[in-house]
Description:
Blueprint: H1 5-15, E1 46-60, E2 65-79, E3 85-91, E4 97-102, E5 109-112, E6 115-125, E7 132-139, H2 143-160, H3 164-218
Amino acid sequence: MASKEPDHEHREDEEAPAADDEDTGAQVAPIVKLEEIAVSTGEENEDPILDMKSKLYRFDKDGNQWKERGAGTVKLLKHKETGKIRLVMRQSKTLKICANHLVLPTMTVQEHAGNDKSCLWHASDFADGELKDELFCIRFASVENCKTFMEMFQEVVESQAPKEEDRDASAAAGLLENLSVEEKETEDKAGEEKPVAAKGEKETKNDTEKTDTEKKDGEPASST
Length: 224
């Protein structure tokens, strides 16, 4: 009887998986060439003085509740030329702006009564493309981060307040401007009065000359 083992071996050879294609090292050029585009964030002329991860909320007056604005990075940015400082926060994944406002000397930041990792402040925010009065609440991962943010925020508020020297200089400039206006008004009045006086003098002179002429005409001719 003939053995069937060879057929079995041949069947195993047929069922064996084909070997992976070898890497030829060929490089395929892309069909479309993409050019690198510079993306402007609007922060090129500003220096960051604070950069921290946090989660931001805004108070919804209509619903009388807190609503999440997003989780991401909050920054305090100082303009290189004007020195003004603004607060900007973007969502971590989409980079959508969820807070964007100037830090003004009239602002105050205070701790959240129910959470020592959070703090509150009011601001006229421009994140949605128009100014809105908002009450913000920001929460950090630790109490230390919250304290650091509050201290820096308060320091910026105080730095934006006009200094006493600037106030004195502004007051002096205002007084000088008022004096200049008053002197100019006085000169204008004097200029108006001078032509009137000159006109009076001219009329008086003309009257005198006229009287002298009349006298001469009225005198009798002398006999020769």
